[in-house]
Each structure stands twice: as C-alpha cells, then as structure tokens.
Amino acid sequence: MSNYRRERVADLLRMFVGEEIRRCRDPRLEMVSITGLELSKDLRHAKLYWSVASFSPDAVAPTDDETPEQFLPDQSDVDQIQAALKGATGLFRKRIAQELDLRYVPDLSFFFDRTAITGSRIDHLLSKV
Q: What CATH number corresponds to the domain at position 13?
C-alpha cells in the first residue's frame, strides 16, 4: 500500500475524529483537539495525539514573569481527558464504520501531545537570551 493512501486516510481519520470529539457532550472534551495521527501500514492501528485548545502554541505566550509550565494542564486533567477519550473510543469506531468507506476500522489509541508546550518553553527560554 502506498504512503500516499495511508496519509490520505490518516488525514481523513484525524479530521473525522476531531469533529466527533466536538460533537461529544462530555464537558471534559470541550477544549480537546487532535493534533496528529500516526496510522500503521496495514491501516488497522491509529495513534491519535491530542492537546487542549487553550494550551495551543498561540495561546501559550508567556510574559517575562510567566513560565510556560503555568499553562500546562494538571496531570489530573490530562488523566480525566484521557479516560474520557478511552471511554468514547467505541463510539468513535462505530461512527467511523458508519460514515467512512474503509475496509477496516482501525483501533484507536490516544496520547497527550506535549510538543506545543515544549516549543513554547523553548521560545520562552530563547527570548530570555
């Protein structure tokens, strides 16, 4: 299978799951956005990376007396969101099966994406130099 097809399916899944998260009525998922998706070569396993919208790189712009760590979600918040995503995985897979024309519905695994926070921290440190 070509990488082009895998990338197209990954983009489609990322957008679709992002929309499904916005449709969820769970208050823990209100600010969650999907930042990336890695799809296995056989299209049966997907790793979805998520972040909280209020912790995006644009929102994390600390002033001189603030540090990017102040903008990090608490570990308890991350755990609650992770539990909500894990609980909704069955719903997401069902909706994928109903709406998308895929031979296999991939297994979904969710991981917290720390790259925006790390990038902001590096920018903050570089601005001090």
A: 3.30.300.20
pLDDT at 106 over 70: yes
What would the DSSP string read from start to end of 37-88? Answer: EEE-TTS-EEEEEEEEGGGSTTT----TT--GGGGSPPHHHHHHHHHHHHHH
Number of domains in the chain: 1
| Mean pLDDT within 17-45 | 94
Q: How far apart are CA 36 and CA 8, in angstroms?
A: 13
The pLDDT of residue 56: 45
Tracing tokens 């909500």 back to the chain, one arrives at 84
**Structural domain harbouring 28:** 3-128
* Residue-level pLDDT at 112: 94
